[in-house]
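Fold this sequence, please.
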Amino acid sequence: MIRHILPLAIAGLVATSAMADTMKLAVTTSFENSGLADVLLPAIKADTDIEVQLLVVGTGQAIRLGEAGDVDAILVHSKAAEQKFVEAGYGTHRREIMYNDFILVGPSSDPAGIAGAEKAAEAMADIAESQAPFVSRGDDSGTHKAELTLWSAAGLKPATFGDWYNAVGAGMGAALNTAAGLNAYIMADRASWLNFGNKADLALLFSGDPILFNQYAFLPVNPEKHPHVRNDLAVQLETWLTSDSAKGLIDGYTINGETLFVFNAKPE
């Protein structure tokens, strides 16, 4: 009996050891749709021996997963929501990692004439005035929150819009597919747009307004709230995400010669 028990016990220890290097990270659909995860995850595994399991959701859902202790950390892009997460004690801190920008995409014929707008809010007002089809993520994601900020800046409320406004309650890739099918305007992050294969007749029509700045941050879940979370692995992952290795991969990730993200993590 002892000869059988010992190998089983050893096998159990080996399995436990292997599991100890697995952590759950909630990330935005825009991060996943960009293709950057396919570049970073193998390097993280090779350098740290951490197996990162991604839960791909909108920023709002990622934050709720963190609040519930269902993940060990989150990587999202909505500063106000992130600050509330930390202030409420659900996250230990907020660490900026990289940024890109939001853009306005629409039919190449540009029926609302947004390509000539000086500000993003002006472009949104032009879309509303023309009542040209517009697709909204409508999913409480970081992109959706940024879109709502732009409507507000334009003095407009989506609740008052007609059927030209399509809130799809979907991730970035699915929303872009819907926009392509409807030949509609949409707000997207630049990385997802560049990596999107089904552009149909859509074109990038407006960008460059500082209000479209899109910062991504890493937030470990607080082990004082949820003692079971792997804060040790989250700390290791943060160290890697802010390293020169990560900087090289993030800054070096391009599609057709265009950079998708810019690393801007600062030393502690």
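Residues 1-20 have pLDDT under 50 and may be disordered. Residues 102-212 form a domain with the D-Maltodextrin-Binding Protein; domain 2 fold (CATH 3.40.190.10).
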